[in-house]
Amino acid sequence: MRQMQADPMMAPPELAERLGMTPARLTRRVERLRDRKILRGPRAVINWRALGYAVEVSLRVTLDKTQPRAFDEFIEAARGIAEVTAIQTFLGRVDVRLSVIARDMAHYQAIYRDQILGLPHIADIEALMHVARIKYDDSLPL
């Protein structure tokens, strides 16, 4: 798994050689990892900044919890906004965090006014503008 994290594009025969095993044995091991849901599969990691998205905002949302379906309805609606790249739920004062990307501030303001503010059951919302991404790493310390 360490080798796969370091170079996810490495061809299976090369990975098998690096690990000192046959390609067939590597294939069986990888299949076991997939069967056990340890490996979720390959994915494309897209640099959204290279596609013209220059603004990233974290929205911390507190929901009206007097409504029994507030979480479900809010999350279902938020999933429909293409510029929302992540949705996280929390215990505490903040209920949900949305990561939103936009091409520029005018685009973000349009998303905020036209889509975010229309989401159901919002009691309070706080916007945090991302200035710099210091560390972002999906790999595990294996």
Descriptive notes:
The chain has 142 residues and is of the alpha+beta class. It folds into two domains: 2-35, no CATH class; 48-129, 2-Layer Sandwich (Alpha-Beta Plaits), CATH 3.30.70.920. Helix content is 34%, strand content 21%. The chain is built from five helices and four strands. α2 packs across α3 (23-35). The chain is elongated and about 55 Å long.
Under CATH, the topology of the largest domain can be stated as Alpha-Beta Plaits
Structural class: alpha+beta
* Residues in helix, %: 25-40%
Q: Identify the strand order in the major beta sheet.
A: 2-3-1-4
Which CATH C-level class of the largest domain is it?
A: Alpha Beta
Whole-number count of domains: 2
Which value, in Å, is the CA radius of gyration? 20 Å
Number of helices: 5
Task: Note the main attributes of this structure.
142 residues, alpha+beta, Alpha-Beta Plaits, 5 helices, 34% helix, elongated
Short account of what is shown:
With about 140 residues, this protein is an alpha+beta fold. It folds into two domains: about 1-35, no CATH class; about 50-130, 2-Layer Sandwich (Alpha-Beta Plaits), CATH 3.30.70.920. Helix content is about 35%, strand content about 20%.
Record the SSE blueprint.
Blueprint: H1 2-6, H2 12-19, H3 23-35, E1 55-63, H4 70-79, E2 84-89, E3 96-102, H5 105-116, E4 122-129
Antiparallel strand pairs: 1-3, 1-4, 2-3
Helix pairs in contact: 2-3
